[in-house]
Q: What sequence folds into this?
């Protein structure tokens, strides 16, 4: 099966824009109900954890409902780590298939997220790679899973879905 990389790239760019605009309701709709959202931790200099149920992850959600709950906490202002919310700019590049024939489509992209914290007036960036599984059964690609491989895991502040 051949996939259309331009429509998948557009979906990745759209997801990044929605995060930067804090349009989380629309962002959430890009995910399938049983979508997995995972930012694994590093075991050592070279290896990531491979079992999110038994090893430490930076973020691990196993369905869209868990992501919705996180958004709800932020919007209710019960999450003191997100007060005030940082401003972000996601920059995406190098979007390509990891396996062109796989369905759902397995796609990788590189990212840099610039983060400005208005509370401290400090900025930093997160960078690494995304690995997406995109379902192509509907009108537009939907995210079946997103794995965030954070290359600079010496994190000066909290990370959350909006800053990765």
A:
């Amino acid at each position: 099966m051949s996939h259309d990389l331009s429509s998948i790239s557009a979906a990745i760019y759209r997801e990044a824009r929605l995060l930067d605009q804090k349009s989380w309701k629309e962002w959430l709709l890009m995910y399938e109900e049983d979508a997995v959202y995972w930012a694994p931790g590093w075991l050592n200099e070279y290896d990531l954890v491979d079992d999110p149920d038994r090893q430490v992850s930076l973020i691990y959600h196993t369905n869209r409902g868990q992501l919705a709950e996180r958004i709800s906490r932020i919007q209710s202002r019960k999450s003191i780590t997100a007060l005030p919310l940082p401003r972000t700019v996601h920059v995406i590049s190098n979007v390509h298939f990891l396996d062109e024939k796989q369905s759902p489509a397995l796609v990788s992209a590189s990212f840099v997220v610039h983060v400005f914290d208005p509370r401290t007036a400090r900025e930093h960036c997160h960078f690494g790679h995304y690995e997406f599984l995109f379902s192509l059964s509907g009108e537009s690609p939907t995210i079946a899973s997103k794995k965030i491989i954070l290359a600079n895991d010496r994190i000066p502040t909290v990370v959350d879905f909006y800053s990765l």
